[in-house]
């Protein structure tokens, strides 16, 4: 193993990669954590950042700072783009497009998933997803700018279009976004405008199923749906979004095949996920099987068949219908590190056993649903349970304290303290969220 110390390369600084790296503290190994953002993001709270409740710093932390006490762990900024399984080498790309190589004895692929547009990637121009900090900032800009632009328009179809928000996908992220936008319109912004009535803003939620939160117990999903209806979210089930443009969406009924256009200048996409490009490339280079979404088939210990030195964890692990949730990634990261440590100690590996710690979804202030085994909570009890789970897993004590303080202030005042957005160039000539134009370039 080179100089005698095993080299462990971890790709991805999300929950799986971070928890894996943490477990190598004081282990006689050289660990490199490679991430394209150089920070850990608490993804379950991205929508709170997007709708102005929390700041970027409250849901993210520098990986270098987080791992400062782990002297054998090096954090590097870069995006994995190639894998040479025979040479045990990963090639990464810097932001300036130059590349560098990382040799490994053990490789942990924790790169996660990205937003899927089901082969219609052109939708991304008008319908941002919710996977990164950049996505959250983009959505914040679009949501708050929509109200500002509507304020400058006379009553009529164009103003109505700016005050209509379409959300695709009724899973936890879609439900949370839809609920937050309605709550934003009816509480935080209700008395701040003169020409428009923000509470008249429409939020349309589209999904191909027959209810919200399909992964939750039917009773909890029904309760969540009732809360959304009371908030004023308009729900459309049994439909697929088949087109997205500058002016709105087209949805098609799964049963009749009939299509209908919905004018909306703000479209948000939460309908599906797929493996990042490197994961698909890695599966090919490793000769591993992958499903349609790009999840890689793994053995019982989360290693790739035929490659015991390579582990795949989190959303990318295709085994036993493991859920794409933070708890699975964290447990997988700890397990992969544990297997490597057992190898170094000459002990046999153990199979991975996922422990379901529960799922939760925030609907609005004082309303959330939570299920953990036989425990099923909704309303204020669910909301308190949701808050406890999220605060417990936030990285950094400072993040926990500041997040709790912000939530308490928001609850007391119906306020959102991080509503700042910047109108900047996106590079798209028709993007309405910039002062630039084709003629000014």
Automatic annotation (TrEMBL):
InterPro entries registered for this protein in UniProt: FAD/NAD-bd_sf, FAD/NAD-binding_dom, NADH-Q_oxidoreductase
Keywords per UniProt: FAD, Flavoprotein, Oxidoreductase
UniProt keyword Oxidoreductase present: yes
Domain FAD/NAD(P)-binding: 7-333
The keyword Transcription regulation appears for this protein: no
Gene3D superfamilies for this protein: 3.50.50.100
Cofactor(s) demanded: FAD
SUPFAM superfamilies: FAD/NAD(P)-binding domain
Family in the record: Belongs to the NADH dehydrogenase family.
PANTHER family: 64 KDA MITOCHONDRIAL NADH DEHYDROGENASE (EUROFUNG), APOPTOSIS-INDUCING FACTOR 1
Protein's name according to its UniProt entry: NAD(P)/FAD-dependent oxidoreductase
């Amino acid at each position: 193993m080179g100089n005698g110390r095993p080299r462990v390369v971890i790709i991805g600084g999300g929950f799986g990669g971070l928890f894996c790296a943490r477990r190598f503290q004081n282990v006689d190994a050289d660990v490199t954590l490679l991430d394209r953002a150089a920070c850990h993001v608490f993804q379950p709270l991205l929508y709170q950042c997007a709708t102005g409740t929390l700041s970027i710093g409250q849901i993210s932390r520098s990986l270098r700072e987080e791992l400062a006490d782990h002297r054998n762990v090096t954090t590097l900024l870069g995006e994995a783009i190639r894998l040479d399984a025979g040479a045990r080498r990963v090639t990464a790309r810097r932001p300036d497009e130059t590349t560098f190589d990382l040799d490994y004895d053990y490789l942990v692929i924790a790169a996660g998933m990205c937003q899927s547009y089901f082969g219609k990637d052109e939708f991304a121009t008008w319908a941002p997803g919710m996977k990164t900090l950049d996505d959250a900032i983009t959505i914040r800009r679009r949501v708050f700018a929509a109200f500002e632009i509507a304020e400058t328009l006379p009553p009529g179809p164009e103003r109505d279009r700016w005050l209509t928000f379409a959300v695709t996908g009724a899973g936890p992220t879609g439900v949370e976004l839809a609920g937050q936008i309605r709550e934003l319109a009816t509480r935080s912004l209700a008395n701040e405008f003169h020409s428009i009535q923000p509470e008249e803003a429409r939020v349309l939620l589209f999904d191909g199923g027959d209810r919200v939160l399909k992964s939750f117990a039917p009773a909890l999903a029904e309760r969540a749906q009732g809360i959304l209806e009371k908030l004023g979210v308009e729900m459309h089930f049994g439909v697929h979004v088949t087109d997205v443009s500058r002016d709105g969406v087209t949805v098609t009924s799964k049963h009749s095949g009939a299509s209908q256009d919905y004018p909306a200048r703000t479209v948000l996409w939460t309908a599906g996920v797929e493996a990042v490009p490197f994961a698909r490339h890695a599966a090919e280079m490793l000769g591993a099987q992958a499903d349609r979404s790009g999840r890689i088939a793994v053995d019982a210990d989360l290693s790739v068949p035929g490659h015991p030195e390579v582990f795949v964890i989190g959303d990318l692990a295709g085994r036993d219908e493991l859920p794409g949730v933070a708890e699975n990634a964290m447990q997988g990261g700890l397990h992969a590190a544990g297997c490597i440590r057992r190898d170094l100690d000459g002990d046999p590996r153990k199979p991975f056993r996922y422990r379901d710690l529960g799922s939760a979804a925030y609907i609005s202030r004082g309303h959330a649903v939570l299920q953990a085994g036989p425990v099923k909570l909704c309303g204020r009890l669910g909301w308190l349970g949701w808050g406890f789970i999220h605060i417990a897993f936030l990285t950094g004590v400072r993040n926990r304290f500041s997040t709790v303080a912000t939530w308490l202030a928001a609850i007391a005042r119906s306020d959102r303290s991080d509503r700042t957005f910047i109108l900047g160039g996106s590079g798209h000539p028709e993007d309405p969220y910039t002062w630039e134009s084709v003629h000014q370039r």
